[in-house]
Structure formats: structure tokens, C-alpha cells
Input
Amino acid sequence: MDPTNLIDAVIDREGGYVDHPDDPGGATRWGITQATARAHGYTGDMRLLSRDRAAAIYRGAYWLRPALDRVADQAPALAAELFDTGVNMGPGVAAAFLQRALNALNRGASDYPDIAIDGAIGARTLAALDGFLTRRGRSGETVLLKAVEALQGERYLSLAERRPAAEAFLYGWLANRIG
Output
């Protein structure tokens, strides 16, 4: 699965330059925070970060590094959701949601062994995903996707409860990131 359409959709949704006073991530362009841009070698003014540079960061840091290309081989819709979740919450959070859901859905480890919830998609997570999909069939991807989205929605609500300034973003998160 080529993530180009997913990356373009995120960039279109995130828009150009934004520096919202209630966003702890600070200045962003195309949804890329200044800290992320700097971590990937960009030293210029955030207002000038090119769309191509942002797309390259998304492809490397949010698709390839967290192994979503390998998830997409088994479950493309799930990989797309994990990409979007990773963009908004961090790839490690998205991976941990997948791991939690796989552990909760393995019927007491009778379908496949529990895996560590370490926020990294490796051989054991991919094997658990394969075990889940083998036992549950193609409809299993839909159920797993719902479980990941439920975890994401709960996290958004918790963020807004803990940090009232996050309430400014809650409606948009739920409208645009869930379902």
C-alpha cells in the first residue's frame, strides 16, 4: 500500500501554518510541529516548510519507521487509521493502542500469545495481528479498527478533562479523527 493518498489527506486537513495559543505543540505547518521538523533536519522558518518536506517526514517518521507498511500488508484500513492516530498522538501511542486491542481480543491468549505493550510494531505484534486476522477473518479488521478508535476517543476525552485548554480541540478531534 502506497501511503501517498493518506499523507496528502493529512496535509490537506492540517493546512498551512498554524500557531494556536492553546496547542502545546506550538507552531506547525502542514501538521508538522517545529520540534518534529527540527528533529528531521529542517532549520528554517516554519512558515516556509515545504509540502514536499512535510510529506517526506510523514512517510519516514509516521509510516515507515513505525512499520505501518508491514501492517498494511495484512490490514490496510487498520494501517491507515494507525497512521492518522500516529500523526495526531505519536506513532508509539498508535502502536500501543494496537497492542492493547490485540491483547484484549485474543480470548485469554488462547488464539495467540499476549504481546508487550511497548509502542513498537515488531515481529511479535505482526504475528499477533496475523493470528487475530487468521482466526477472525477479514471482518476482524473492522472490529480491531473499532477497538483502536475507541482507545483514541477515550484518550481525547481524558486530555480534555485533564487540560481544559484542550477542550478547544476536542470537537474537531472527535469529528475528524474518529470513525
In short: The first strand starts at residue 17 and ends at 18. The chain has a mean pLDDT of 94. The first helix runs from residue 4 to 14. The radius of gyration is 17 Å.
